[in-house]
Amino acid sequence: MRRAFSTVAWDVARAKQHVFTPVEYRYTTRDAIMYALSVGCKAKEDLRYLYEDAPAFMPLPTFIVAPGMKHTGLRRWPGLNVDMRHLLHGEQYVELFAPIPAEGAFLSEKRIVDVLDKGSGALIMTEVTTYDKSSGTKLAKQQICAFQVGSGNFGGDRTSSHTMKGADIPKRPADKIITESTSEEQHALYRLGAGDMNPLHIDPAAARISGFSSPILHGLCTMGFASRHVLKAFANNDASLFKAIKVRFASPVLPGQTLETHMWNEGGRIVFETKVKETGKTVVSNGYMQLHQKDNCAIGFSYLCCKNEYVGADPEKFVNPGRSRRGIAMRDAWKFSNVIWTGAFVCECWALFSVLYGSAWCCDKEVLRMPSE
Question: Which of 48, 55, 103, 201 has its CA 20 to 30 A from that of 123?
């Protein structure tokens, strides 16, 4: 049975008032690639996330969780009484406000926004805001909900205005399903890729102390897999279309098990849940991903909105390999809010795209196909 051993009182007001000095996280393309490998990227399908000189190379959007792991931990947070052996990662929200640079340095600020008394335990809600150190640009916001078993009934609030609710899973069959196996070394890879060095995920003795028979996969690693599945199914594997993701961790995953992500297109966002195929257990529940709904025009390719789905050519076929960062910058600069638009450009070939009520015309004698589903 899991329980908290310390009797030190919780001082929620003090915890919410405390502010730590922003923490720096320096990274290179190698770190971004290590993270991509740790959440299952494959060279044949995901070259733009694994090769620094690939056309349109970019870090995966969920790489932003790495600086959160480096930040000062809850164990030393004033006003809290945290026992890491009994702390479970319950929920995660990630929102990007700007593309993650290929390499550079982050500055991250962390604060406690609330601590809820759930009776059987305490729910600690933290928020991490990350900035690009060189430009000062606000890159991302994360909300992390951690549940400490056995630390409830301290007289705190039961609800919070800061709660970010997950999505209700539709009753109909999933629109798309992607199945992918994890490796038996997935937890070891993720420790290096994301910097989460919690011994629970590698040391059998530490896992037993926490109530598990063997080390379990990081919840954020499972989220990384699920995020890739949604991007592959609904965004042509283009991570630049990622806006936000919310997940609830419902059950642990063992390294080597097979993940099965069920996805529904709900108009403004993609709702999903992830199960372990071998057991049928839901491991990520009430998840959703928000995708950018604006049209993006880059030199050589476009994504067109039609019935909340993206229609487009493969971006890796069009971006100049020697100008990948320039291509990304130009693509992000050309954004339009209307579905009906006309654009023209001259590169090595002449092309004209015009859209009228979601219909795509041909480019260089090749027709952009509309989705069949």
Answer: 201
